[in-house]
Amino acid sequence: MSIPIELTVNGRAVHALVEPRTHLADFLREHLNLTGTNLGCEQGVCGACTVMIEGAPARACIAFAVGCDGADVRTVEYFDDDVVMQELRAAFSAEHALQCGYCTPGMLATARDIVTRLPDADEARIRHELAGNLCRCTGYVGIVRAIQRVLQARREASPMAMA
Ligand code: FES
Ligand code: FES
Q1: CATH architecture of residue range(s) 82-162
Q2: What pairs with residue 8 in β-bridges?
């Protein structure tokens, strides 16, 4: 039995009929063709599927689509023109943090949350915040450095904001 839902995805109103068992990541990928949200473990561990729900990072593989009825959902596609995401993409490139690329949409979602919520985060805090996003291929050095690069540039651009 399908259930009607209404939600906002990337600023657009979406109406759909979904099975109760459909998780948000499958809904985004298969119903809306938003394939920037990747799936790894599908059990809430790896963070590859991280999207923003109501402005906070959340795992789309363990959120039911029907549970997002009425919610505001933003995927990596939404952030093409976002200033922080542009800074992060450039920093990920400069720091060679785009290793396999598979985890990258989820890493960027969490990285953006760190930059916007924790402007004074140090390396230890960045690593703590990234604990829910697993890299299976290489390691975190480049990713952590990329986030540090953005935070440092922002501090230098507006030092009074950190006072
Ligand atoms: S696919 Fe969602 S946490 Fe791994
Ligand atoms: S960089 Fe994506 S899993 Fe390692």
Answers
A1: Orthogonal Bundle (1.10)
A2: 13, 72
Q: What is the pTM of this model?
A: 0.93
Distance 25 CA to ligand 1 centre (A): 9
**What proportion of the chain, given as a percentage, has pLDDT over 90?**
94
Contact 99 CB / ligand 2 (< 6 Å): yes
Which is the closest atom of ligand 1 to the Cα of 62?
2
Is the pLDDT reported for residue 163 higher than 50? Answer: no
Q: How far apart are the first and last CA of the chain?
A: 55
- The 10s digit of each residue's pLDDT in 91-128 is 999 999 999 989 999 999 999 999 999 999 999 999 99
Q: Report CA(146)–ligand 1 centroid distance (Å).
A: 22
Superfamily of domain 3-78: Beta-grasp domain (3.10.20.30)
User: Domain residues of the chain, as ranges?
Assistant: 3-78, 82-162
CA angle 153, 46, 15 (to 5 degrees): 90
Q: Which two tokens stand for residue 40?
A: 């790894």
